[in-house]
Amino acid sequence: MPATKDENTQVILVNDRDEEIGRAEKLAAHEKGLLHRAFSIFILRREAGQPTEVLLQQRAASKYHSPGLWTNTCCSHPAPGENLLQAAMRRLKEELNLIGVELSDIGQFHYIAHFENGLIENEYDHVLVGWHQDQAFTPNPEEIQACRWITLSDLEEELGQKPEQFTPWLKQALGIVQSIDH
Predict the structure, then answer these.
(1) How many domains, the chain?
(2) How far apart are CA 5 and CA 13, in angstroms?
(3) CA Rg, the chain, in Å?
(4) Separation CA 137–CA 96 (nearest Å)
(5) Distance (Å, rounded) from C-alpha 38 to C-alpha 81?
(6) Nearest Cα to Cα of residue 38 among 88, 77, 90
(7) Is residue 16 in some structural domain?
(8) How many Å is the maximal CA-CA distance in the chain?
C-alpha cells in the first residue's frame, strides 16, 4: 500500500496511563497494533432554544482505514514534541481550514479496532470539544468527502440503527461529549 505524507509521520507510543514510552511511524503503529496517543475533536453549536449539534465528517474514500465512514469533526495524533492542543489546532486547519476555535480536553478512553485491511487502531484517545462561533470552514477533499451538522440525540439514534456507517471509536467518544452537554 503506498504511504501518504500523513502515514509517514510518527506517533507517540504510550502505556495504559497515557505516559509516553516511545515513538513509531504511524503506519507501522497501525500495522502492529501499538498503543499510541490520539485525539477526537467535536465541534459543537447550539442556537437559542435548539438542541446541541455536532459537525460530523465523512472520511474521504482515499483514507487508509475507515474510508467513507462518518465520524466526529476531526481526529488524528499529536506528533512527538507536540502538545495535544497544538496538534488539534493543526489538524482542524489541515482538514477543515478551521481556525480560532478554543478546545477543551474533556476526557479520554482506550479502544482497539481491527480493520479489513489488517490495520489495527489501538489508541489512548483524548476527546476535545470546541464551540462553533460562525467560523467559516472548508473541508479538505483529501481528508473529507462530506460534512453535516446533526443533533447529539439524532446521532446517537443513527449510531444505534446503522453502526456500520460510522467509525468504531465514535460511539465511545460521543458518550464522553454527551456527559458534558447540559
Answers:
(1) 1
(2) 19
(3) 16
(4) 5
(5) 14
(6) 77
(7) yes
(8) 49
Task: Please tell me the distance from the alpha carbon of residue 54 to that of residue 36, in angstroms, as a whole number.
Answer: 26
Report whether 152 contacts 170 (CB < 8 A).
Answer: no
Q: What is the pLDDT of residues 89-139, one digit of tens each?
A: 999 999 999 998 999 999 999 999 999 999 999 999 999 999 998 888 999
Could you tell me if 41 and 125 are in contact, meaning their C-beta atoms sit under 8 angstroms apart?
no
Q: In which domain, by residue range, is 74 found? A: 6-180
Cα–Cα distance for residue pair 19/114, rounded to 1 Å:
23
Q: Does pTM surpass 0.85? A: yes
Is position 1 within any domain?
no
Residue 95 lies in a domain: yes
Instruction: Pick the closest to residue 179 from 52, 47, 17 (CA basis).
Output: 52
Spell 122-135 as b/e; 16+ CB within 10 A means b: bbbbbbbbbebeee
Which positions are catalytic? Answer: 75, 123
